[in-house]
Write a structure and sequence with these properties.
8-stranded mixed β-sheet, alpha/beta, Rossmann fold, about 40% helix, 6-stranded parallel β-sheet, about 15% strand
Length: about 400
């Protein structure tokens, strides 16, 4: 089967976790003997970009004409961003370039992911050529210009502006060209359906994560003298960083609980200040490699105190690989990935007292910590690359590809 995978970025050019999931899928399909072509974007100054083959995947990059490259949008003025979105509502140049690529080697199916910069114009071009289109949503791009369902103050958006409602109506309308719509979580799929998505085939396929066995994960100390909780995330308000700091203040009478906050972002100064005032709070900065491994190895549990509609946090699977449970907000798709009392604990979002209660309980109950460790391998098994590849091959066949 020839599969055309489309994502606005592809490693080594990256902005977030979606690119890694797309690469995992593309290389997993190639390892099964399928021909995989990845189409992605580059900056205008980078054209013509040489064709690459990495991990058995042929990679084609081009710049869909617009005000700027989507990867370089962060410091643009609002008027430029507005014009960019207007052009991106239906980018004819992207549609034309994809049609040329498909004419050179017609795929059996086109599988799109994050289409910022491409727009739904590529979907119509594919359907016009008789190529079925499967789309995977990794965020709320089709429903929200910011893709996170958050307002400009990074709070949950409960009253979208007229412009945002028009944006949502238009982009969801372009999904009429899709053959199938897939999500890594049921929550994200349900949100799109509730907003008006209408596609013949829908489904949920969990993300695949390349995790190897962590030495000693099953033999960690269940009853250490001090319990180290870990919060590893971008240091922004919607990630619940301040909620975790307030929870530690509520636990000021508990000496055997520590919190390590890892990451970087706008709240770094506040995290540093909290760590300076409370010796039980450590700020690790951005962690990777041996440092990340060491911190996960000694953690009692991972915290995800999010205030926004998380979709499919891969870090939950990472925590399970280390044999630890997760304390997460009861919001978005997080409850789909945490079995309360079995693989972690849930608390109400934005509730420092609720989070403090969960931490106190974990520190006080060795049987609970042991249960998390025993159930962790089952979490990892749900999110393998092979499982993701199998799931998408089923989706491709459901829309008539490879028949």
């Amino acid at each position: 089967m020839h599969i055309l995978v489309v994502n606005n970025l592809y490693p080594p050019i990256m902005a977030g976790g979606a690119e890694l999931i797309v690469r995992n899928l593309a290389e997993g399909l190639a390892a099964r003997g399928h021909r995989v072509t990845a189409v992605t974007t580059c900056g205008p100054e980078m054209e013509p970009y040489p064709v690459e083959t990495i991990g058995g995947v042929e990679i084609l990059r081009f710049f869909p004409k617009n005000m700027y490259w989507s990867f370089a949008r962060s410091d643009r003025p609002r008027w430029q961003k507005a014009l960019w979105h207007l052009k991106d509502s239906w980018n004819r140049d992207a549609g034309r370039r994809l049609a040329e690529i498909m004419a050179d080697g017609r795929p059996d199916v086109m599988h799109t992911h994050v289409i910022d910069g491409f727009s739904g114009a590529i979907w119509r071009r594919a359907r016009a050529l008789g190529v079925p289109v499967v789309h995977t949503a990794h965020d709320y791009h089709l429903m929200c210009p910011r893709a996170f369902m958050l307002d400009r103050n990074w709070h949950l958006c409960t009253k979208p502006s007229l412009q945002c409602r028009v944006f949502r109506h238009w982009h969801l309308g372009t999904t009429r060209h899709l053959s199938a719509f897939v999500s890594p979580s049921q929550f994200l799929l349900d949100e799109h359906v509730a907003a008006g998505l209408s596609v013949p085939v829908t489904g949920v396929v969990p993300n695949g994560v390349p995790l190897v066995a962590v030495p000693g994960a099953g033999a960690r100390d269940i009853d250490p003298p001090v319990h180290h909780f870990l919060l590893a995330a971008r240091l922004t308000q919607e990630k619940g960083i301040l909620v975790a700091i307030e929870a530690m203040a509520a636990l000021r009478d508990v000496a055997n609980i520590r919190l390590t906050i890892a990451g970087r972002g706008p709240l770094e100064a506040q995290v540093r200040e909290a760590a300076a005032k409370d010796p039980r709070i450590d700020f690790a900065g951005f962690i990777s490699g041996e440092q990340k491994d060491r911190i996960f190895q000694t953690a009692t549990a991972l915290l995800i105190p999010s205030l926004w509609y998380e979709n499919a946090p891969v870090i939950i699977v990472e925590a399970a690989a280390y044999g630890i449970g997760v304390v997460g907000s009861r919001i978005g798709a997080i409850p789909e990935f945490i079995r309360d009392g079995e693989t972690g604990l849930l608390f109400e979002p934005g509730d420092p007292a609720g989070l403090a209660t969960a931490l106190r309980r974990i520190a006080a109950e060795p049987a609970l910590r042991r249960r998390f460790a025993e159930n962790a391998p089952g979490v990892v098994d749900r999110f393998t690359i092979d499982g993701m590849v199998d799931g998408y091959l089923q989706q491709y066949r459901a829309v008539g590809a490879g028949a």
